[in-house]
Amino acid sequence: MAELAKTGAAAPVRAGGTAQGPVVLQVVPSLETGGVERGTVDVAAAVVAAGGVAVVASSGGVMVRELERAGGIHVTLPVHSKNPVVMARNVARLRRLIEDYGVDIVHARSRAPAWSARAAARRTAKPFVTTFHGTYGHGNAVKRWYNSVMTRGDLVIAISDFIADHIRETYRVAEDRVRVIHRGVDLDLLSPDRVSAERVIQLAKRWSLTEGMPVVMLPGRLTRWKGQALLIEALARLGRHDIRCVLVGSDQGRRRYRAQLERLVRRRRLDAIVLFAGDCRDMPAAYMLADVVVSASTDPEAFGRVAAEAQAMGRPVAASDHGATRETVLAGRTGWLYPPGKADALAQAIGKALALTTGERERLAEVAIAHTRANFSKEKMCAEVLAVYEELLQAAAGGQAEAG
């Protein structure tokens, strides 16, 4: 263990896991904020709650502390690196980690670490599972080969039916190796009855929102494919000046793109309407302020977290009609799907959402919340991932019995 920077555990655990559950190693580039990282920590907490041991190997990040609070173990390794020499060395590092912690299952969630994790799992004869989080770039044979490691698990978890179809069609993965497990929303946080009026009022003051003025909201980092420019064009076509549009999310250093958006706002004379709010630490309160939440992605969403979270909060959604958004949004019932990239159609969808009567909005909220709770809860996601782990362990045990 000399090369392993370990946090969260005083000593390695017994091989073979605890009496109640297995030792699961998840490998992820980092534990900074993001959907992949959130799923990693949530599953680690579920493993611990079920009596197992959760180990995560990553380069570190702000969510390490949350992992440790949940009872997980973090081991700092340079698994984020795409350098072939570092990736080769990571195989030996992960192999020692597997042996020292008595790991039963290896779960990779990203391509670079998956290459090292797969080799380490094979050399230690441990079940290997991957989660396919996106379509990735696959325009040539080299890229498809690099991506293909995410299809080389004993089982492959797809985060939506859209991704499952992509895996089968692009990488020719057999149907019986794919398990669809949608990403989960934390309903303990994203629930209207858990957000105090004080939190909503404080955020409204911070954003200088006028009481009673309708709010159109697009949550998402400022990057071109998230469609902020499309929303601005749609607002210009909508032609209303009695609303506010809040763009929630950081530019993450993309200052040129933000400057382009600001110029577009000025050209469309929407300065008094559009607010660049930056990051928000209280998204449940932010959703409560929204009269309609927009997902304007120009590329297909692998899952569509914004749409799921907005519906969990009972908010109408206007979203691009492609990717997994077709799975998360009930068109005409919890929101509106419009042709991707079409500003006029997005403007019409926003107009319909803003025209809802109080009764219509309440009925939509009821359906949206029930839909999210039934299909996209964190608890459901974690239970299904644990079921995949159990399936792998049973298959491994069966193989050992046959070999014996």
Key descriptive features of the protein:
disordered N terminus; six-stranded parallel beta sheet; 14 strands; eight-stranded mixed beta sheet; alpha/beta; single chain; 404 residues; elongated
Strand content: 15-25%
The description of the largest β-sheet is: 8 strands, mixed
Helix fraction bin = 40-55%
Q: Give, in spatial order, the strands making up the sheet with the most strands.
A: 1-4-3-2-5-6-7-8
Structural class label: alpha/beta
* Number of H- or I-type helical stretches: 15
**Contiguous runs where pLDDT drops below 50 for at least 5 residues:** 1-5, 7-19
The protein's oligomeric status is single chain
Quick structural gist:
With 404 residues, the chain is of the alpha/beta class. 44% of the residues lie in helices and 15% in strands.
Describe it.
With 404 residues, this protein is an alpha/beta fold. Helices cover 44% and strands 15% of the residues. It contains 15 helices and 14 strands. The protein has helices spanning 35-49, 64-69, 84-101, 111-123, 141-147, 161-171, 197-206, 228-238, 255-267, 283-289, 305-312, 325-328, 343-354, 358-375, 378-403; strands at 5-7, 23-27, 53-58, 73-76, 105-108, 128-132, 155-158, 178-180, 215-219, 244-248, 274-278, 292-295, 317-320, 335-338. The strands form 2 sheets. It has an 8-stranded mixed β-sheet with strand order 1-4-3-2-5-6-7-8, with helices on both faces. Strand 9 (215-219), helix 8 (228-238) and strand 10 (244-248) form a beta-alpha-beta unit. Helix 8 crosses helix 13 (343-354).
